[in-house]
Amino acid sequence: MTPKDGSPGVKKQAPDDLKREAGYYAAEMVEDGMVIGLGTGSTVAFAIDRMAERVREGLRVRGVPTSFQAEIRARNRGIPLATLNDYPELDLAIDGADQVDESLRLIKGRGAALTREKCVAAAAGELVIVVDESKVIPVLDGPVPVEVLPFALRPVILGIQALGGDAILRMGIRKDGPVVTDNGNFVLDCSFGTIADPERLEGLLSLMPGVLSCGLFCAFADKTTVVVGKGDGCRELTR
Ligand code: 5RP
Question: How many angstroms does the Cα of residue 97 sit away from the middle of ligand 1?
Fold first, then answer.
């Protein structure tokens, strides 16, 4: 199994200024005293940077990171950290996404942090998703990352094929062999073409034995604000 062009790992990245715009905007939504879920990826990294500046200016927050990437970035910049076990209920989470549809359903997981991101999104009172314009589309059609227990890799691949999907084991870049998640598992990038019923697909994937979670995030739209960086300011999308 080899990575193919078009997998999330080789997707063309948006310019940094659009990501910075969205990330900085979201960081201004954080209020004193909040406990914040810190998402993973290159867009939310800008939110972490700006939040850290605000902490140096006197803002009191605690961050619950969704990955080693977020943890290292936030710790290095002086954001006090905590865990989901310290704070099972969070005020707000800020995260990125790979695709956002008109109903604010998401595909996430290019950074392989989808399982912790889903735990943090579920725990948050509000979810702020930071993206650039290219990620907002009418209908989800990108590959859906699925975190899978290595023990159950082949049964899960067969299960995804039975749903009409094409599952590709995500391979490391500057590491031989498969990507291993922060939880010690593998990631399958699963193409289904246009996803007509994302809720149903999320349910079916999530129920497969050996699947930790999938990158479809359909249950959070009511508490989601999408911040879209456009280059000349941000627009907010809510339901
Ligand atoms: C990581 C994610 C990321 O939030 C998502 O892939 C967006 O990343 P970026 O902002 O770098 O495009 O889901 O698992």
Answer: 5
Residue nearest to atom 1 of ligand 1 (CA): 111
- The per-residue pLDDT for range 78-108, each reduced to its tens digit, is 999 999 999 999 999 999 999 999 999 999 9
Please give the distance, rounded to the nearest whole angstrom, from the Cα atom of residue 203 to the centre of ligand 1: 22
Report CA(39)–ligand 1 centroid distance (Å): 8
> At residue 13, does pLDDT exceed 80?
no
pLDDT exceeds cutoff 50 at 1 = no
Give yes or no for residue 132 CB within 6 A of ligand 1. no
Counting ligand 1 atoms within 8 A of each CB, the residue from 10, 12, 21, 43 with the most, and so the one to mutate, is 43
- In whole angstroms, give the CA distance from residue 194 to residue 134: 17
The pLDDT tens digits of the residues spanning 154-171 come to 999 999 999 999 999 999
CB 63 within 8 A of CB 92: no
Q: Which of 221, 54, 63 is nearest to 128 (CA)?
A: 221
Segment 20-63, tens digit of pLDDT: 999 999 999 999 999 999 999 999 999 999 999 999 999 999 99
> Per this entry, what is the length of the chain?
239
Q: Which residue ranges form the domains of the chain, and what is each CATH number?
A: 15-138+219-237 (3.40.50.1360), 144-214 (3.30.70.260)
Distance CA 64, CA 203 (A): 26
Residue 113 Cβ < 6 Å to ligand 1: yes
Is any ligand 1 atom within 6 A of the Cβ of residue 147?
Answer: no
